[in-house]
């Protein structure tokens, strides 16, 4: 019979082994285990791709299937814009007038500004990435053209790794059209007014009022059903592996020259990692270029840890089927913690 003291000692030793960070050599297998546990606890689904660039080791958990990007699509928009600047087709101080058709709900203040007011490309990039302004994104997509954006995205991520990217106004039209086709006749002002209603029955009622419809006219009864039908179309999606490949190319200087790349790093808050989602699970003061994305029951956080080091770490993570606010934030924070305990084991 093992003495009680020895049993306690063994238990303590085992506990330390479980809690100890994984060694750098075996981090992919250890990270898969941790992500599986997070996914099993989630009422929805989790997708994660991680790659350490110094040795090329990577981990993919559901990273080869499409995930809805939401505002993380603003990174390929920014890359495409900066490439157009580099090619002389745009300039950073070139100005574009705000049009009524650019205005859309979401983060940022441009939606509330007077139509006709002019903004430089530099100001629009700052607004789109630093404040995730959807109206700024719409102007930039209009400036380069949707065909140019999608050709670029396929080049950065791989033709089969990314779905068609659209403007943020088009997303609203496509979602509300699942309620009723007449949604496409709504003005941008109508879209903004509808978005002022809480998600759920109030949003459906706001739509029917704006579209001058009755409840019986609708194709589906709820916003959840409308979004489910929209998500099935595969628009504004990418695999995490494809998105990670784009981030790898970005930090390695394959997409932009150094000056433009460093400019994008600033827009991606390299000095402001914060404590939100993935960043909340990483060691404090970790250098991290990143972008978040949020839509109904969808949330993503993507970025590169220590992007100026040879041992930079690409991370792309999305969740779906969960409340996009606090529950999604908590799941992504757990993913960040798992990355810290495995890939960054030699850093903590």
TrEMBL record:
Gene3D superfamilies: DD-peptidase/beta-lactamase superfamily. Its EC number is 3.5.2.6. It catalyses: a beta-lactam + H2O = a substituted beta-amino acid. It comes from the Bacteria. InterPro entries: Beta-lactam/transpept-like, Beta-lactam_cat, Beta-lactam_class-A. Keywords: Hydrolase, Signal. Pfam families: Beta-lactamase2 (PF13354). Residues 1-24 form the signal peptide. GO terms for biological process: beta-lactam antibiotic catabolic process; response to antibiotic. Residues 47-156, 199-318 form the Beta-lactamase class A catalytic domain. GO terms for molecular function: beta-lactamase activity. The keyword Lyase does not apply. Belongs to the class-A beta-lactamase family. This is beta-lactamase. It comes from Pigmentiphaga aceris.
């Amino acid at each position: 019979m093992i003495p009680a003291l020895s049993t306690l000692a063994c238990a303590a030793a085992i506990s330390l082994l479980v809690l100890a960070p994984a060694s750098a050599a075996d981090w992919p297998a250890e990270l898969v285990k941790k992500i599986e546990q997070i996914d099993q606890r989630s009422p929805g689904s989790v997708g994660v791709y991680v790659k350490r660039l110094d040795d090329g080791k990577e981990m993919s958990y559901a990273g080869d299937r499409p995930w809805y990007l939401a505002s993380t699509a603003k990174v390929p928009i920014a890359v495409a814009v900066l490439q157009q600047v580099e090619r002389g087709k745009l300039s950073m101080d070139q100005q574009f007038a705000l049009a009524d058709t650019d205005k859309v709900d979401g983060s940022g203040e441009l939606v509330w500004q007077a139509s006709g007011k002019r903004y430089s490309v530099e100001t629009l990039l700052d607004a789109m990435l630093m404040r995730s302004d959807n109206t700024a994104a719409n102007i930039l997509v209009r400036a380069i053209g949707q065909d140019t954006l999608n050709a670029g995205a396929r080049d950065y991520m791989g033709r089969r790794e990314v779905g068609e990217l659209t403007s943020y106004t088009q997303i609203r039209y496509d979602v509300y059209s699942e309620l009723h086709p007449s949604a496409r006749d709504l003005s941008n002002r109508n879209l903004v007014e509808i978005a002022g209603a809480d998600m759920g029955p109030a949003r459906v009622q706001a739509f029917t009022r704006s579209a001058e419809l009755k409840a019986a006219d609708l194709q589906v009864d709820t916003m959840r059903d409308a979004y489910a039908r929209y998500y099935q179309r595969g628009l504004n999606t990418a695999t995490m592996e494809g998105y990670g490949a784009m981030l790898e190319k970005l930090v390695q200087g394959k997409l932009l020259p150094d000056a433009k790349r460093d400019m994008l790093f600033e827009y991606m808050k390299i000095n402001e990692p914060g404590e939100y989602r993935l960043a909340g699970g990483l060691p404090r003061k970790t250098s991290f270029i990143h972008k978040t994305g949020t839509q109904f029951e969808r949330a993503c956080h993507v970025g590169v840890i220590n992007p100026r080091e040879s041992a930079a770490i690409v991370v792309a993570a999305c969740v779906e089927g969960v409340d996009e606010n606090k529950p999604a934030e908590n799941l992504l924070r757990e993913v960040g913690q798992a990355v810290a305990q495995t890939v960054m084991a030699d850093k903590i």
